[in-house]
Design a protein that fits this description.
heterodimer, A: alpha+beta, Uridine Diphospho-n-acetylenolpyruvylglucosamine Reductase, domain 2, Uridine Diphospho-n-acetylenolpyruvylglucosamine Reductase, domain 3, Enolase-like, domain 1, five-stranded antiparallel beta sheet, four-stranded antiparallel beta sheet, 12 helices, 14 strands, about 35% helix, globular, B: alpha+beta, Ubiquitin-like (UB roll), DNA polymerase, domain 1, 2 domains, five-stranded mixed beta sheet, 5 strands
Chain lengths: ~280, ~160
């Protein structure tokens, strides 16, 4: 399995990355951990004449939690997310999700930046970032800009990122309340048949805040505002959960593939969301 | 297009320098340029783990790394872990507990297990199953692999206690 030839670059700063991106436009791609891009290149589904390896670019990894904000450098690996006590204390849903991504070898290489920037609807972090209302920092020829995760995804592999930009970091406010990342997959290492990220705040037996996002059930992650609204102001009684599941099913648009027909995926999505709500509530 | 680039690798403590196309997969550089045929080409699609090596302290599937990305790295393959005259504790445990049948997945299994035990010297059975989930075996049904890794862990811990 041999990919097409490419020109290889290993710049040491962001300016170096941007100048190559400006010169080659969408003929150039940034490679972080490479565990989405390299398989695509080997299958010749991705054609990358100019490959920019950012492993030597300073300042792109690390996790900081300060003033109620979590900031994670794009090159931070899934293994590093799992091992970070600070991150787990601030936002334990990241560790819960990262442990369900791929397998140990892939988690040593796979990065959060690659996971969110690639735009693969099967990736777990984009939906989670929408649940947390994260924002993505993009760096380009005109400097830096931030894009909310909820506005970033346009279609499969199509995002708000311009060809000359690189995603450098993600950030989000430290979440409150209970959480759950539930994922149904065929086997270890697989993408989700259905996955749900849920954050809930309960006060005096009442849900005062909910956020719900679904993974791999449309060509983008789906943040379901209607599902969250169905829970807010309720005690999470059976009728409220049924309404949230109905609302979520109205927002997703799964397609048939080797993970099953549409009806099965909708069934799995409903089951996974029910489990995620129950687990998040038990922790709220 | 670049044809070939200079690549430097430190493999099993030895420095190597050679010319390679950037697109060459690390597994092929190890096997065909350096004659280290311990890491195997199994699925070649990041699933099976037969090509697992340790790259700068991480367990990595070397079919999913371009040799250009590994330039400058330190790598350990099964050849650097033990040899027939001096088996590693894990290799001895796999032999003792029948942790292999055909042996094809074994170099990747043992290379991954060395890193697992380095990070978690006292794993539970569940830790071993979860930590070895990136390596597929089509013979053993895994039971004896898990047994072997647990036995090696207790052997290594015993040796550590004896040394103290």
């Amino acid at each position: 399995m041999i990919p097409a030839k490419f020109e290889y670059y290993r710049p040491t700063d962001l300016a170096g990355v941007i100048s190559i991106l400006e010169e080659h436009g969408d003929d150039a791609r940034v490679v972080a951990g490479g565990h989405s891009l390299i398989p695509m290149m080997k299958l010749r589904m991705a054609d990358v004449p100019h490959l920019i390896d950012i492993q030597d670019v300073e300042g792109l990894s690390g996790i900081s939690v300060s003033d109620g904000t979590v900031t994670i450098g794009a090159m931070t690996t899934q293994a590093e997310l799992i091992d970070s006590a600070d991150l787990t204390a601030a936002a334990p849903i990241l560790r819960e999700a990262a442990l369900q991504i791929a397998d140990p070898q892939v988690r040593y290489m796979g990065t959060i930046g690659g996971n969110v920037a690639n735009g693969d609807p099967g990736n777990d972090m984009p939906g989670l970032m929408q649940c947390l209302d994260a924002s993505f920092t993009l760096f380009g020829p005109d400097g830096e800009r931030k894009v909310p995760a909820r506005d970033f995804y346009e279609a499969a592999y199509m995002t708000e990122r311009e060809d000359e930009e690189i995603l450098t970091a993600i950030s989000f406010a430290v979440p409150n309340g209970g959480y759950a990342y539930e994922k149904q997959k065929r086997k270890i290492g697989d993408y989700a048949t259905a996955a749900a990220a849920v954050q809930l705040v309960m006060e005096g037996g009442n849900c005062t805040f909910a956020s719900i996002a679904m993974t791999n059930l449309s060509d983008t992650p789906i943040w379901s505002e209607a599902a969250a609204d169905a829970l807010t102001g309720t005690s999470l009684d059976g009728a409220a959960v049924d309404a949230a599941v109905e609302a979520m099913l109205g927002d997703i648009d799964p397609t048939e593939d080797n993970r099953g027909p549409i009806e099965f995926k909708r069934h799995a999505a409903a089951t996974i969301l029910r489990r995620a709500i129950a687990r998040a509530a038990s922790r709220a | 297009m670049t044809d070939k680039m200079h690549v430097k690798l430190n493999v099993n403590g030895e420095d190597h320098e050679f010319l390679a196309e950037p697109r060459e997969l690390l597994i092929y550089a190890l096997r065909e340029k350096l004659n280290l045929t311990g890491p195997h080409v199994g699925c070649e699609t990041t699933h099976c783990g037969a090509c697992t090596v340790t790259l700068d302290g991480k367990s990595v599937k070397s079919c999913t790394v371009f040799v250009a990305q590994a330039n400058g790295a330190e790598i350990t393959t099964i050849e650097g872990i033990g040899n027939p005259d001096n088996l590693h504790v894990l290799q001895e445990a796999f032999r003792e507990h029948h942790g292999l049948q055909c042996g094809f997945c074994t170099p990747g299994m043992i290379t991954r297990a060395t890193k697992l035990l380095e990070e978690n010297p006292n794993p539970t059975e569940e830790d071993v199953r979860f930590g070895m989930a990136g390596n597929i075996c089509r013979c053993t049904g895994y039971q004896n692999i898990v047994k072997s890794v647990l036995a090696a862990a207790s052997e290594l811990n015993g040796a550590k206690e004896a040394a103290q």
